Prior knowledge:
The chain is α+β, with helices and mostly antiparallel strands and 1156 residues long. The chain has six domains: 32-219, Methylesterase CheB, C-terminal domain (Rossmann fold); 308-496, Vaccinia Virus protein VP39 (Rossmann fold), CATH 3.40.50.150; 512-522 and 533-650, 2-Layer Sandwich (Beta-Lactamase); 755-851, Beta-Lactamase (2-Layer Sandwich), CATH 3.30.450; 855-974, Beta-Lactamase (2-Layer Sandwich); 979-1152, Beta-Lactamase. Helix content is 38%, strand content 21%. It contains 32 helices and 40 strands. Helix 2 crosses helix 7 and helix 4 packs parallel to helix 5 (163-171).
Amino acid sequence: MKNRQKRSTEVAPDLTEEKPKAEHEAASRKDDRLIIVGIGASAGGLEAIEAFFQQMDPQSGMAFVLVQHLDPNHKSILSELVGRFSKMPVQEVTQSLRVEANHVYVIPPNRDLAILNNRLQLLDPSGPRHLRLSIDYFFRSLAQEARDSAVGIVLSGTGTDGTLGVRAIKGEGGLVLVQDPATAAYDGMPRSAIATGLADAVLQPAEMARQLLAYARNATFPYTLPAGGAPESLDERERLFVLLRSQTGHDFSLYKDATITRRIQRRMTINGIDTESDFIRLLQKSPSEVDALWKEFLIRVTQFFRDQEVFDALGTDVIPELLKRKSPDEEIRIWVPACSTGEEVYSIAMLIHEHLEDLGETRDVQIFATDIDQAALEVARAGIYPESIISDVSKERLARFFNKNKSAYIVGKELRRMLVFSSHDVIKDPPFSRMDLVSCRNLLIYMKTELQSRVLGLFHYALNENSYLLLGSSETTSAAQDLFTEFNRKLHLYQRRPRSEARYPRLPYSGFFQSMGLSGVVKGTKIRRNNEPTLREVTEGALLELYAPTCVVVDDAGNMLYVHGQTGRFLEATTGEANLNIARLARKDLSIHLSAAIREASATKKEVCYRSLRLEGNSGVLTIDLRVRPLPGKAPQRSGLLVLFEEVTPRGQPGDAETTQVADTALLERTTMLEQELASTREVLQTANEELQTSNEELSSTVEELQSTNEELLTSQEELRSVNEELLTVNAELEGKLEQLAEANADKENLLTSTEVGTIFLDLEKRIKWFSPIVTKIVYLIEGDIGRPVEHISHRLKDVDLPAVVEQVLDTLAPVDREVCDEDGSWYNLRVTLYRTENHAIGGVVVTLSDISEVRRAKQFALFHKLLESSPDATVIADAGGQIFMINKRAEALFGWSAKELKGRPVEILVPTRFQLQHRQHRERFLEAPRVRTMGLGNTLKCRRKDGSEFFGQISLSPIETEMGMLVYSAVRDVSEQQQAEQVLQRTNRIYQCMEQLDIAACTGPEQNGKLLRRLCREMVKRAGYTQCWISLKNGKGSSALPPAAQAGLPKKSRSSLDPALSALIGSNGVTVVRDIPTRTDHSDLRPLAQSWGFGAVALLPLMKGKLTLGTLGLHAEESWAFGDNELDPLRVLSRRLTDCFNEKKTMKTSEIKLS
C-alpha cells in the first residue's frame, strides 16, 4: 500500500506559508510552478470535454491531462476528436512525456497513467477491466506531484471513479471542479464526487473553463505568509474567528497561522479578493461563504489502511497486547478523534475483528469515533463507500466485511456493532475515559504548542495506564513529554506514562467560562496574546489540584460541560450512540440520586446533598457524599450546576441516620414512579402482543398461499428445463454447422484478401454475388450492392465499359485480359473469366483487377536510369513535391551524397540553408508554368555538398510527364571557379570605389575621424558586399580598444565589446586570413560565430605606422573562399590609406571617437 498523507476533518491541511499582501509584491513573487489540470470522464464525457475546451484560452499557461475510460481492445481516436475543438496541441501520452503548458495530453487505451518529476508515466493496468480506476489512479499521482497547483475535474460518467482522487487533490490544497449532474449524460461520477463535500464548484463544462481561467490568473504557489509569519492584521483575524465561531460554534484561534492563512488565502483567490479586510466584509454579507471557509478547514481526506506500515504495527504489536492484558469479560475501548468519514475507524475495527477470529474469541469492543463535521459523520455512520475503495481494501476484506450494492460497498453489521459515532470537539468537549488506544493522526500538527499541550493532556486523561497513543507521521508528544513514552518512534506510536501527581484536563478551552463570568475577563480588557498564565491562574490551578474534589459542571438537562478530576469511579461510557448526559453515564447505584438532585437543584436554585451513598466498584464498596449546587455568577447567560463527588469514610454519628433516611425517602419516591411507568409499559406491550398475534395468523395464511404458488412454479421450472435441454442440443448442432461455414468463408476471404487482387463474382444475370474489400478502391461498391446488376455500378477505370466486357465473355466463353488505367494514373491488369461450378457448369463471371503500377514504374525507372548515366552532367530528377527521385553517378561525385541517401529527401538539401526558402519559392513558381530552361546567364545558383562546402552551379530544367506524375529533370554543372573570378573582380573594383570616397584631408580631429571610419565601414558592407566591417584601435596602453571604433553589420551585443573569438586573432603585424570556417577543424571557436553572423571567411589587416600598430581593420565575407591574393591587394592599399588618418598632427584618441 502506498504511503499517503491524510488530513483530519478538524482542520485543513497545509504547512506552507502565505503570499505577501501587497499586489506588487505578489506579482513579483509569482511562482513558475505549472498548474496541471486532470480531467476525468467516462460515458457521455466527450460532449462535456468539447464544451470545456471550446471556452479554454489556448494561452492559459496550464497543462491538461485527459483520463477517459477507453475500450482496451480498440485503437483510440480520442486525441483526434479533442484536437478538432481544442486550439491547443493535443497528443496521446507516450512513455516519460514531459508536461508543458498550453498542451493537452490524452491517455492511451489499456494503460494506467501517473506523473513523476513533471513527466507522464504509462503503466500496465493494475486490475481487471471492470475493476480499473484509472481516474483515481492519476488524480492521486497528480496530488502527490503537483500538490496545491493540482486541479481535478470530474465530468460525465457512470460509477464512482475519481472520488478517491478528488479527496487526494483536495487534501493537498488543490482545486476540485465537478460537472453539474443536471448537464451530464451520465451523472454517476459527478454525484459521487459531489457527495464527498469537497467540490469547490459544481458547474457546467463551459463555466468550468471560465472559472479555471480566473483561478489561474489569481493563484500564487506556494501561498506564503507576510514577513514575520503573521496575518495581515490581528484585529481582522480576530473578527474572522468571531464570525466563524458565531456561525459554526467552533474556535480556530489556536491553530497555526500558516494553516489558517493558507485556507483564507485560497478562498480569497477563488473569490478574486486581494485583502483580508475585503474578505471579512464578504463573510459578513454571505453566510454561505462562511460555511465554505469552515469546510475549507475541514478537509475530509482519509482512506482505508492509510500508511500500511502503521496498520501492520497495530496488528502485530498493539492489538495482540491489548487482547492479552484484558480479561475476556473486560471491554476493549478505543477512541478515534477527527475520524472524518470513518475509513480509518473501520480499518481498526477490521484488524481487531480478524484477531478475535484468529483467537476464536468473542469480546466486547467499543470504538468511539468523533468529529466536528456532521456531514462527514453521516457518511461514516452510513458506512457506504464507492467501489473505488478496491484500490485500498483487499478482495478478501471486501468479501468478508462489506456488502456490494450496485456501485458501492456497504460496511457489514459485525463492524458496525463495534462503533459509536458522535459529534465531539476535542478542544472544548469533555474527553472519553478508560481508553486502551487513542488514534489521532495529523490533527496536532495544525495546532499551536499551547493547544497541543492541552489536547495531549486530554489524551493522557482518557487513556488507561500503559495504553497507546497513535499520532500522525509529522507529530510528536514534545508538547507534553512527561505524559508519554515512545513505543515506536518511526511510526509515532506512544504509551501513556503514569504520573506521580494528579493532573486533570483543563476544559472547556473557550466559550463556556467567558459566558459564565468565570474567566476573569472584564469587558473592554485586552486579551493576552502570549501563552504564559498569570500568577492568579497558577495559584488557582495549584489549589484546585491539591484541594478540589472530583466535580462535573452540567447544564439544567444534565449535559456535561466541564470535568475536573478522575470521574472513572462514578461515571462510565455505555454501549450505543455516544451521550454526554451525566445521568446516562453515572453508575447504576448512583444514577437515581444524581437525577433527583439535579432536578431539585435546578428547580430550587439551592444546594442538594445526599450523604453516605454506597457504591460498589472493582476495589470494593465506596462511600461518597453527592452535592449539586448552582454555579455562582452575578448575571449568568447560561444556567449551570456543579456536581461534586466527595469520598468519605463511613461514620456512626447520629446525623448519618437522618441523612440515610432522606436518601431512602427519595429512593422510595423514585421507585414508586418507576413502578407506575412499568405498569403503563406492560399495558402497551400487552396490546402490541395481541396485535402481533393477529398479524402472525395473517402471515401464516399468506405463507401457505406462497408455498402452493412455489410448488406450481417448481413444476413449471422442470418443464422449462426439459425444453431447454432439447433446445441446447439443437443449438449445438447448428453452431457446429455455422463454425464449418464460417471457417470455409474465412479461408476464401483470407485467400482473396492476401493476394491483394480485387475480385468481383457475378451470376449469369450479371448481378453481384460477392466482392473483395480491396476492389472498392477501384469500383464503387458497398455491402448493400450485393444482388444489384453490374450496369448500376460505377468505377474509376478510364475507357472501360465493364458491363460490355462481361457480356462479351458470356457470349464468346473466352476470357478478356488487358491493361487499364484509373483516374489517378494507377495501372491495373483487368481479367474477366468464366465462373464454373463443381460439375463444370457456367455459374457466372469472375472479374479480377491486379495493380501493376509498380511493375510499370520499375520499367520506367530502368529507362530513366539508363538515360541519366549517359548524361555528361550531374543529373537530379525530382517529383512535383520536390522529393528527389533519382540521381546519376556524376551527381553523387559532385554533391558527395549517394543515390540511396538522397532518394525521397527534399531537393532543398542540395542548397545552403540560407537559400532554401528562396529556392522552394522558385521551384513552386516553376511548377505553376513548367517549361524547359537551358543553362546560361541567370540560371546559376549556390549549391551545397554533403560536407557543408558550397559551390556555384549552373542548372538547366526540363519538366517530364510520366505515369507517376510530372518529374523535373535537372542538369547541374560546377562553375565555381568562373563565378568566383567574376565576384573577385567585381569586389576589387568596389573596394577601389570605396577608397575614392575616403577623404584623407577630412581627418582633422576625433569627431571627423570617427565619421570617416563609420562611413567607410558602411560602404564596405553596402558597396563591396561584405557581411561585416569593423575597425578596432589600440588604446594608450597598447591593447585593443573595446568597443570597436567603427563598425557596420555587427549585431548589437557585439558593438560594445568585440567578440573574444575575433579578439584572439588580433596581435599579428601581418594580415590574418581564415577561410572555410564552417568545415575547418581548427578555429572551432569561430564556427558558432560564423554561423550566427552569416560569414564563411574573415580577414584582419593591421593599421601600421612604421613599426607601430595603431589598430585593426576587420572584414567578414559570406563566401568561404574569399580573401584571395587578388582581393587582398586593394585591401592592403586601403589599410595604408587609413593609417594616413593618424599622423602626428591628426592623432585622435580612441576614447574620443563616438560609438557607431
